[in-house]
Amino acid sequence: MLTAENLAAAPVRHGFFTREGGVSDGIFASLNCGFGSGDDPAKVAENRGRVAAALDVAPAALVTAYQVHGTETSVVIEPWRRDAAPKADAMATRTPGVALGILTADCAAVLLADPDARVIGAAHAGWRGALTGVVEAAIAAMERLGAERARIHAAIGPCIGRASYEVGPEFPAPFLAQNAANAAFFAPAARPGHFRFDLAGCVARVLTQAEIASVGRINADTCADPRFFSYRRATLAGEKSYGRALSVVALAQ
Questions:
Q1: Cα separation of 217 and 135, whole Å?
Q2: What domains sit in the chain, N to C, each tagged with a CATH number?
Q3: pTM of the complete model
Q4: CB 112 within 8 A of CB 100
């Protein structure tokens, strides 16, 4: 479990979990927390239970949404059943004991907290979410629960790094149309018309422009570092599926 210094204030608990310390095997070894991965559901449930225990929350209080690379946000009043999970890529809560989980395998998990207001949030930010406003949606949901952005701290979890993230000729046009300064996050790749994209850098700029209290970052490339699950690495290796890492923020009871 990796942590960010700027999210260390009570009553907030958080962790960016690696793929180590679980019970899954094969391509899912070992802390696979994605029920949609094709792994044994009993093993995934055990892995999620271990994540919950590490943060001292009840396993049933750990919620994840059905992520669709959008900007929909769910306010969590109480934990939902897995089969009732909403389609959303951001969540917010002020309910003590609830833990918000984001599943990733190259995308960036963003964990947020206003410790004074006792409000937390979480967002799943791939390139679509970074472009269309999923992080801003999470902050707005937190504000509706009583948070103030000047007190919100955010941390960006491990995600695919620029050196590993080659994108096609459809980039960077949509990002430049939004803000010419986004050119800083694209560098030419070896293939003509292709680019290397700095996802974490782009998400960090979004957070900075939101004028929140602080922005932290776990510097790790999920594709290049075997400690993490990676959709791109699995695809390049010809594997049929891949595990999902879990990043979690919770409010102590």
A1: 14
A2: 5-158+218-251 (3.60.140.10)
A3: 0.98
A4: no
Q: How many angstroms separate the CA atoms of 46 and 22, rounded?
A: 8
Cis peptide before 24 (omega within 30 of 0): no
Q: Please name which of 147, 143, 108, 111 lies closest in space to residue 129, comparing C-alpha atoms.
A: 108
Q: In whole angstroms, give the CA distance from residue 155 to residue 214.
A: 8
pLDDT for residue 253 is more than 90: no
Residue 64: C-alpha distances to residues 29, 76, 127, 226 (Å): 20, 10, 20, 24
Strand 245-251 to 12-16 pairing: antiparallel
| Pairwise CA distance, residues 63 & 73, whole Å | 13
Phi, psi angles (nearest 5°) of residue 77: -90, -40
CB 104 within 8 A of CB 157: yes
**Under 8 Å between Cβ of 229 and 245:** yes
pLDDT tens-place string over residues 35-89: 999 999 999 999 999 999 999 999 999 999 999 999 999 999 999 999 999 999 9
Residue 94, Ramachandran bin (φ over 0: left; ψ between -120 and 50: alpha; else beta): alpha
CA distance 176 to 129: 15
Please list, in sequence order, all residues whose beta carbon lies within 8 angstroms of the beta carbon of residue 56, skipping any fewer than 6 positions away. 13, 252
Tokens standing for residue 96: 């003590």
Pairing of strands 73-75, 90-93: parallel
